[in-house]
Amino acid sequence: MASSAIFNFLPSSSLSSLSFRNSRTQTPFFYKPLIVKASTSVDYSSSSLAGTSTKNNNWVWKYKDNSVNIYYEEHDKGSDEPCKNILMIPTISDVSTVEEWRSVAKDIAGRNGKVNYKTTIVDWPGLGYSDRPKLDYNADVMEKFLVDFINSPDSPVNNSDKDLVVFGGGHAATLAVRAAKKGLVKPTAIASIAPTWAGPLPIVFGRDSSMETRYGFLRGTLRAPAVGWMMYNVLVSNEKSITSQYKSHVYADPEKVTPYIIESRFALTKRQGARYVPAAFLTGLLDPVKSREEFVQLFAELEGKIPCLVLATAGSPKRSKAEMEALKEAKGVGKYVEVPGALLPQEECPEIVAEQLYRFLQEIYEL
Questions:
Q1: What span, in angstroms and rounded, lies between the C-alpha atoms of 267 and 68?
Q2: Do 171 and 323 touch, CB atoms closer than 8 A?
Q3: Residue 117: in which H helix or E strand, if any?
Q4: Which residue ranges does the record assign to the AB hydrolase-1 domain (predicted)?
């Protein structure tokens, strides 16, 4: 049977894994990269945080002949005071969700400072709580969605002064940088959290012609009506597989992987159409670039244009960490900070990540 051959040459543990300066005069530029190791503790004063208001809704993305309902959440103080807009984009994975950003979003939106912030988290098409149509997903499709979500007149993050900061994790971070490099979006600043560019299989097995043929076969099988669901249930959509990936490399500390996390992620994998984006992600179709050199060059193109913070992680898998460390002294990276965690630090260590991101916002807007 064809699926048996796939199991023999690709271990299931790797299949289910996550891979892995602005023209405004008041914006500081970091022409010489600043490299920092973050503290593992955060001290909040009793008056530093306020209550937040949360709203969730759907935005309709028009793509070719499809109308795709896109889920998003907004967090702010619930007041009429002016605020700066922040877009938070989840790490692309088979269990990607707005939930990974929720604690950080509420933290930053609730801060009492010189500037108020509204944080918006959006689920990718085909992932999280968004619709999951059977599209031919690739990096260009995901980039198109991101550009449309930011630029469309009816977008929840579109505003008259065009002032928007983008925070993204994993592949999402790199796709945002790629869109900015092309001039398709013009954010005030970008923060890349545990940025990646290679999908789970390419980062382990490479991209020679033989492997690309196998990836194509696997991708086609996962998208097939009957056998696709069977294979997806074995490789991805089961609690044992999700628990294994979270405890082995998504989180650095397996003790932080709670039953709730596993249950909520498992539920996401059972949504209609759930296997289409993972089929593309696992096999490298969502990779924004094809090499480390291209990855570094993307960030270099931001030099002198858009301030960029990179939050690398101390506990990432070896291959993914090597790609993050390639950005340590790269052009275009104004500040490089190492934080605890692995491939999802915004969920595993939200207080520390929120503190670093808030400091970045202060450097942009308050200094």
A1: 20
A2: no
A3: strand 117-122
A4: 107-355
pLDDT tens for the chain, 367 residues long, are 333 333 343 543 333 334 333 333 344 444 456 776 765 655 544 346 668 899 999 999 999 999 999 999 999 998 888 999 999 999 999 999 999 999 999 999 999 999 999 999 999 999 999 999 999 999 999 999 999 999 999 999 987 677 999 999 999 999 999 999 999 999 999 999 999 999 999 999 999 999 999 999 999 999 999 999 999 999 999 999 999 999 999 999 999 999 999 999 999 999 999 999 999 999 999 999 999 999 999 999 999 999 999 999 999 999 999 999 999 999 999 999 999 999 999 999 999 999 999 999 999 998 6
Going by the DSSP 8-state scheme, the letter that residue 132 receives in this structure is -
Query: Could you count the other beta carbons within 10 Å of the beta carbon of residue 162?
Result: 13
Structure-block tokens of residue 244 = 């294994």
> First-to-last CA distance in the chain?
63
Yes or no: say if 110 and 72 are a contact pair by the CB < 8 Å rule: no
Cα torsion angle, 115, 345, 310, 281, sign: negative
Q: Kind and range of the H or E element at 143?
A: helix 139-151
| Residue 228 phi, psi dihedral angles, 5° rounding | -60, -45
Two tokens at 354?
Answer: 């929120």
Using left for φ > 0, alpha for ψ between -120 and 50, and beta otherwise, residue 65 falls in alpha
pTM for this entry: 0.88
Q: For the CA atoms of 347, 91, 246, 263, what is the dihedral angle to 10 degrees?
A: 80
As given in the structure block, the two tokens for residue 78 are 């619930």
Q: Give burial (CB, 10 Å; 0-12/13-18/19+) of 49.
A: middle
Q: Which residue ranges form the domains of the chain, and what is each CATH number?
A: 1-367 (3.40.50.1820)
Name beta bridge partners: 35. Answer: 336
Phi/psi at 166 (5° precision): -115, 130
- The whole-angstrom separation of Cα 234 and Cα 238 is 7
CA distance 37 to 27: 23
Give ∠ CA 104-67-289 in degrees, rounded to 5. Answer: 60
